[in-house]
Fold this sequence. Notes:
There is one protein chain. Strands 4-3-5 form a 3-stranded antiparallel β-sheet. A two-stranded antiparallel sheet has the order 1-2. Helices cover about 30% and strands about 25% of the residues. By secondary structure, the chain is of the alpha+beta class.
Amino acid sequence: MPDETIRIVTADTSDESPDAPDDDGAKNGGHIGVDWSDAWDAQPNEPTQKQAAKAVDSLRLHNVSIKKLEKELVDFMQTVDQMFSRADAEADMKAIELSEIELSVAINAEGSFSLVGLGAKVADTRTVLLRFKRKS
């Protein structure tokens, strides 16, 4: 049975051709869906339309193994658990306790999870929100 995959859409900032395969062999997504070129031609000096066309052209599709995503998520969650367990023990708080942690996480084209920090200069980053609660 072949490995199940999920598609991850990324915004590519390189000058690659939209039809060139990326490193993992996936086809670039160039013109995914509706061809909006006629709408762009109607008002060629409209900056918003040019930006939208550029954004659509930069989309790339990547097939990532579900098993790889699961492994990466497990590794990330174990690291978060270990980090906050150590911090909680070291802080030795007497009057209050941390009851919930909310983290913004990005998933890249290879399926790796990364913590997104405040003020991150990641172009057009979309994140997944992971909310962790203490076990009762």
